[in-house]
Amino acid sequence: MTDNVTGDIAPGSWSPKRDRAKAIQTIVKIIFGSFAAISILTTIGILATLIFETIEFFKEVPISQFLTDTRWTPLFASKQFGIFVLVSATMMISVISIMVALPLGLLSAICLSEYATPRIRRILKPMLEILAGVPTVVYGYFALLTVTPFLQIFLPDLQGFNALSAGLVLGIMITPMVASLSEDALYAVPRSLKDGAYALGATKRETVTSVVLPAALSGIVSSLILATSRAVGETMIVTLAAGANPTLGFNPFVPVMTMTAFIVQITKGDAPYGTIEYKTLYAVGMTLFIMTFALNIFSFWFVRRFREKYD
Amino acid sequence: MPTPLPSTSISEVSDSKTIALQMEKVSVYYGSNLAVKDVYLEIPEHEIVAFIGPSGCGKSTILRCFNRMNDLIPSARVDGRILFDGEEITGKRVDPVELRRRVGMVFQKPNPFPKSIYDNITFGARINGYQGNYDELVERSLRGAALWDEVKDKLQESGLGLSGGQQQRLCIARAIAIEPEVILMDEPCSALDPISTIKVEELMHELKERYTIVIVTHNMQQASRVSDRTAFFNAVATDQGGKMGYLVEYNHTQDIFSNPKEEYTRDYVSGRFG
C-alpha cells in the first residue's frame, strides 16, 4: 500500500480508515446474523415445544393406540386417539384438491407460457394472482354456501358439511400456486431446446408434450408437492366446509374432521393447560408437521435428483 | 459505410449445377426494422455454402429463412421469394412443419434433448411417422455423424452427459436421422474446442455427398477449409440506430478469398475489419 506507483500523487492524500471500516464490517455482520438467527431460533423453539408436549402426550397414550384406534374421541368420556381418523380426512381432501389443481394449474401454466400471446398473458396472469389473494375464509364460505348447495342438485346424498366441496374449493385455492410454479419451470426450458424440436419438424403440440414438459418435469412435480403440502396445512376452508365430525374412511359425501380442523376446535374451546386434551393438540400438530416436512424434503430431493442442467 | 449495392449481378452462380435453394430479393424485418435487405442467392445441390460476415450482418437470419425458423419470432417478417427445389416455400400455403423435415438444422450451441442418446435420434423420426427399424436408424444416423463408436455402448444414457463436441455430433445425427435434403448449420463449431471442430469439419465433407449444406461461420479459416462457395454479408448502420445487413459478394470460395471483386470483401477476408 505504501508504494506510489504513478509517482505524481502527493503522499498523505490517501488516509484510509481501515480499523473503522473493519469495525463497521463486524457490527454489520452481527446485526444481519442476529436477524437471520431470529427465524432459525423461532423454528427451533416451535419444534422444541412440539416435541416436548408430544412426548408428554405419549406418556399417557401409548403410540400403538395412537396409530391403531379407529375412533377419535379425545373430548369424550371414553377417550380414543386414532390419529388416522384425522389423517384420512386430511389426505382425502388433499387428494381431491390436487385432482382439481393439477389439470387446472398445469394447463393454465402451459397456456400462459407456450400459447398465450403477450396481450392475453397480461390479462390472464394477474387474474390468477387475484385468485391467490382471496382470503381463505372467503373460500370457506364459498364452499359451504355456494358449492355445496350447487353440488346437492346433482348429488342428493351430499351432506351440508362434506369433504368434496372443501376439497374442490381448496383445489381452486392452490391452483395459482401450481400454475405459477409450473409456469416458472416451463419458462426455464431453454429456447434452444424448443428450436431443436421445431427444426426437426415438430408441431407446437409435439414440442410441448415431448420436449418442454419432460424437461420441466422436476419443477412441475415440485410445484405439485409444495401445493399438496399447502393443502395439507390449510385450515379455514376445511373447518368451515368439511365439518367437525371425525370419521374414518374416504367417503367424500359426509362430514369429516381434518387435523387442522381439530386443532381449531380445541383452541377455540377451553382445554386447560396440562390436560390430555391440551397435549392432544401438540400430538396432532406434530403429525401435521411431520407430514408437510416429509413432503417438502421429498420435493427438495426430487428437484435435485431430476433437474436437468443446461449450463 | 457504403450504401448497399444491388447484388443481383454478383450473386449468380454461373455453372450449370442443379439449384437446391434460391432467394430472390429477400428482405427480413423485425417489427419495422429492416434487418437484411434484398438478398439474391442460389445454392447448388451437394455443395457446402458458407455465410461469412461481421456480427449483425444478417447471415443467421437469412439461414433461418430456409427452414422458416423466423416464423417462430412473432415480430419477424420475410419478404421476397424463396425457392426449394424450384418450389416456393414462403407464404401461408406451405406448412413449415413439412418443410423442416426436408431442411434440417444444427444450432450454434449443442442442444440435445434431455433424453437418452437413442431417444434424441428417434425423436424426429417418431413425430414424422417413420415406419422402418428404429435400431437401424439410430446406428445409421450415429455412424453418419461419426459418433457411433463413441456411444454405441451407452445409447440409453442421457445425451446431456456427452462432451460438447459429441453433443454437437449427436445434434447432427439427430438432423440426418429424418433424412433431410438440406442441412443448415448456424455456427456449429463456435462452442467447440479445436479438435471437435476438426471432427465436425471432416464430417461435413462426408455429409456433402448426400446433403446440401449451408453453414454460417464467424471463422474465415473454417469457411475457406470446408466450403465450395462463400457468401459475404456486411452490415451498415441505419438511421434508427440499428444495423441492416446485405449480401456483398457471393462466389466460389477460392475467388472470395484470393480474388474478391469487392473492396469490402477484400478488407474483411484479409482481416482488416469484422
Features:
heterodimer, A: 311 residues, mainly alpha, MetI-like fold, 12 helices, B: 274 residues, Rossmann fold, 27% strand, disordered N terminus
CATH architecture of the largest domain in chain A: Orthogonal Bundle
What sequence of helices (H) and strands (E) makes up the elements of chain B?
A: EEEHEEHEHHHHEHEHEEHH
**Biggest sheet: strand arrangement of chain B:** 5-4-1-2-10-9-3-8-7-6
Q: What kind of oligomer do you see? A: heterodimer
Counting DSSP H or I runs of 4 or more residues, the number of helices of chain B is 10
Low-confidence stretches of chain B: 1-11
Number of strands of chain A: 0
- The general outline of chain A is flat
| Ends distance of chain A | 40 Å
Radius of gyration of chain B: 19 Å
Question: β content of chain A, as a range?
Answer: under 5%
Structure commentary:
The complex is a heterodimer of chains A (311) and B (274). By secondary structure, chain A is mostly helical. Chain A contains 12 helices and no strands. In chain A, helix 3 (83-115) packs across helix 9 (217-233), helix 5 packs across helix 6 (163-187) and helix 9 (217-233) packs antiparallel against helix 12 (276-306). Chain B has 274 residues and is of the alpha/beta class. Chain B has a single domain, classed as P-loop containing nucleotide triphosphate hydrolases (Rossmann fold, 3-Layer(aba) Sandwich). Chain B is built from 10 helices and 10 strands. Chain B has helices at 59-63, 96-102, 117-127, 134-144, 148-151, 164-177, 194-207, 220-226, 253-258, 263-269, and strands spanning 19-30, 33-44, 48-52, 76-84, 87-88, 103-106, 182-186, 212-216, 229-237, 243-252. A 10-stranded mixed sheet of chain B has the order 5-4-1-2-10-9-3-8-7-6. In chain B, helix 3 (117-127) packs across helix 4 and helix 6 (164-177) runs parallel beside helix 7. Chain B starts with 18 loop residues before the first strand and ends in a 5-residue tail after the last helix. The chains are: A mainly alpha (311), B alpha/beta (274). The interface between A and B is medium-sized, with 21 and 26 residues.
